[in-house]
Amino acid sequence: MNSYHIHLVSDSTGETIETLARACVAQFNDITVTENVWTLVRTAGQVSKILNAIKQRPGVVIFTMVDKGLRTQLEKGCESLGVPCIAVLDPIMASLKDYFHTEAMFKPGLQHEMDEEYFERIEAMHFALAHDDGQSTHEIHTADVILLGVSRTSKTPTCIYMANKGVRAANVPLVPQCPLPFDLTDPKFSKCLIVGLTKDPRRLVQVRKNRLSMLNETAHTDYIDLDTVVDEVKFARKLCNKNSWPMIDVTRKSIEETATAILNLKMKRDQAYEDDNWGEE
Question: What's the whole-model pTM score?
Fold first, then answer.
């Protein structure tokens, strides 16, 4: 496999550029990439150090910086080193400028300001942690989304991911012969989107075995017995089908893909609710 360096330079946290770069690199086979990530770059001295590092480890430079002086310094330095230097946000900014008929502020870190939306995300994160695995049941009806599923169907990380988008998400484990700690058919849950998560039983067994191995547990139990796990999955599917709760098979889905599917369901549900109640006020 061919090995390359790429340099990701940002005047903020670097989340945007890392996501963009990884999405692009994923489309190329038979290569390995070493990411050199430079964040909170806001001085000429920092850019000079980055250029020295690029000289030692040449590779494509991808950046998101709004300060014109620092951009020029980085671009000229890369030109002298003979490495590509890509400003990934420029086409988007140019199109928005033309459409909005106004100039951008060119101030770094604006997307991370602690505004109302920021604090909503923090509150959603607290909610997800407090309502993980069926905890704090007295407030769970205030959730935007409630995930149901047997053990190791990625309920918790999916809730955390959605919380980072401001969605109040809770999750509840499903165990055959064990009733839910509350009645999800109660009218007070009518505003909650309830979604079941499922996974291929064989994959579930493997994930559970890996989990037990990390905990130094070696005994064979029903938790990793294939027939038992098959029954668990059937029980979860039957419960969701009975109550017309949508189910998502996460066997071949990443956390991001699962969360996106759930958020799409929520958007459609919210839109249907608005359409049904349009003009009532």
Answer: 0.78
